[in-house]
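Take a look at the protein record below with the fold in mind.
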Amino acid sequence: MKTRTASCSCGQLSITVHGEPRGVGICHCLACQRRTGSVFAALAGFNAPYTVNGRATEYLRTGDQGAQFLFRFCPVCGSTVYHTEIGYDDKVSVAVGAFADPQFPPPTVSIYDNRRHAWVQLPSDAKVFSKDP
């Protein structure tokens, strides 16, 4: 079984996941744009178990449809590394960039496409949703 480790910029916070991602997606919502400082967030979902090393600061955000997401980021360098959805403790979403792996699988889903910057090109086979499905 493949093991991957994602970490923050300074290396203080990391998460190790096992197996292939359940899915890889990008989110163009304004909250993700602000959270990442980029024009979208790239996320990969994994099943538990996973191992976290280091200290994390947490930020709870409620989505448009009421779901609550607990984002974990490094208190030293500020990098967002992973998040979970309240009530779904058997899953974790990890920031794709935190893997620092240019060979990481591409996204297959794009949500909040109504907020996508016009110059962002999606993979041709990506399933696109105007908002959160």
User: Anything to note?
Assistant: The longest strand covers residues 41-47. The two ends are 30 Å apart (CA to CA). The chain has a mean pLDDT of 95.
